[in-house]
Amino acid sequence: MRERLDVVDSVVVPPRDGRAFEVPKGHFFRVVAPSGAQVGDLNLWRRGHLAERFYSGKTRQLHASHVTTGDRLWSNMPYMRPLATITHDTLAWYGVDDDGASIHDVIGTRCDPYTNAVLRGVDYDNCCHSNLTRALAAHEGLAPEEAELHVHDVLNVFMATGFDKDHRYFMKASPARAGDYIEFFAEVDLLGALSACPGGDCSASHSDDATACYPLRVDVLAPHADDLARWTGSPAVQPVALAKRQMCKGAMSEMKTGTELYMSLYPETSSDASLRLGNVVPDFSAETTHGDMPSFHEWKKGKWAILFSHPADFTPVCTTEIGRLALKYDDLQAMDCLVATLSVDPVKSHEEWLTDVVAHCENKIEVKFPIIGDADRAISTAYGMIDPATSDEQDLPLTIRAVFIVNPENKLMLALNYPACVGRNMDEIVRCVEALKLSYEKSIATPANWPNNHAELVVDGKTTDEFKGSVFLLPTVSKEEADASYPGYHTCDVPSKIEYLRLVKQDQV
Question: Which InterPro entries does this one have (predicted)?
């Protein structure tokens, strides 16, 4: 597979600075030292899920204190899977030197302003911890203090380190030469951040602006499509029984997002070909009113998407549904959510029918989303919207009214099924996307009737409306985490005295 790689992106990391980058699942990336000896500190997350991140301690336990070709970078629990595999290392020749030093350590340390202040009494903020924080904040649109919570122990790329006979950590000059690189294969969609360490080759000083320091570069490389045809990636080894036990008993853990927790309970593929929550949705190609769609997964790549089926063109309820969905399209687009609709009618029928849809909405709409023609019912069958035994002889060989909300990783997050005689509420669909995205990013769950919930709540003996639209913290968020991240949360008093109803105000999320 490595023999046929094409560079699709390059990110230069300036000296004493950091940059973030993305690597699609099934692609490679290289950390390159273009100018010679320069140490880099690397963080990795699963793209779109900052809760799953590189776990240096577990990687060290499974491999060694230093990694090279064939070793894997593992994620934290409860996900516990390889995020990336090292496929090539031009410094593999170094091995272990006479001092006991080796290259690319997963000891986890990184230069940071806090240790500098403790040991040297110096306020220095171009260190790797700060560089990684700023890079993540800029890429994800987070406040620095929020981004800092996601920065974690690193892979020290190109760094020569070891332990002496007294078990004390030491570092020495990096042997990296101009053009040296370490290459990784992305087992999942990755978000990375790399800092060009202010210590340069780390032979002397470690955190200052005087040491010679050079840029680093990250190259993202794509293999040829046919080389990946039979590769499916590495599944998480989530212990489902443990996760269920934690959630039901209110046990506390370090899981960060609501979606992560609940989706971890569902397998990515079903055992009986039925499409269920948490499954990766079937990919397909189709003709649409916007032209050919070679791949649904590629069309929505990295985004949320709604697949919305209607039974048939030129029918009354469907006409109102497409019109009302068009009125909500801009709201959904603002949430970075794509929309595609579908029926078993051919595209030509869709195009003719759309004039009626627009006219019925008093010509005040524009249908900006594609409508898929599924005349052979292949997509409808794959998604369970129609039974495979449905035949043309039936009076209505139609799909049900279905809504599938799919996350950026192509996993089914929500499914709604309606009969032909009941039209759908578009406000509810928009609400579901808002709630899913919020839980996807935060360690919360939305209550019933959100965001109109808890319009009145008794707090400290007084009735208040301050908690209208509030959300619940997950039972897996510890009291310490809740106190630190959501200092104004309110715990509802219930007869059981179990403190599981913890509300966070809307403006704090």
Answer: AhpC/TSA, DUF1989, Thioredoxin-like_sf, Thioredoxin_domain
> Amino acid identity, residue 335?
M
Under 8 Å between Cβ of 407 and 48? yes
Backbone angles phi, psi at 358, to 5 degrees: -65, -45
84: Cβ contacts below 8 Å, ≥ 6 apart: 29, 44, 72, 73, 184, 185, 186, 187, 190
Instruction: Find out whether 477 and 252 touch, Cβ atoms under 8 Å.
Output: yes
Handedness of CA 83, 89, 95, 100 (dihedral sign): negative
Contact between 20 and 230 under an 8 Å Cβ cutoff? The reply is no
Using alpha carbons, select from 275, 305, 421, 280 the residue that is nearest to residue 370. Answer: 305
Interhelix angle for 113-120 vs 128-140, to 10°? 160
Q: 354-368: string of b/e by CB count within 10 Å (b at 16+)?
A: beebbeebeeebebe
Alpha-carbon span 431 to 451, nearest angstrom = 8
pLDDT in tens, 472-482: 998 878 888 88
- Report the C-alpha gap between 343 and 372 in whole angstroms: 7
**Is the bond into 388 cis (omega within 30 degrees of 0)?**
no
Cis status of the peptide bond prior to 316, with omega within 30 of 0: no
Q: How many degrees, rounded to 5, is the angle at CA 81 between CA 76 and CA 86? A: 105
Helix (H, G, I), strand (E, B) or coil at 71: coil
The C-alpha atoms of residue 62 and residue 307 are separated, in whole angstroms, by 41
**Burial degree of 400 (CB within 10 A; 0-12, 13-18, 19+):** middle
pTM of the model: 0.52
Contact 442, 257 (CB under 8 A): yes
Q: Work out the percent of the chain whose per-residue pLDDT is above 70.
A: 88
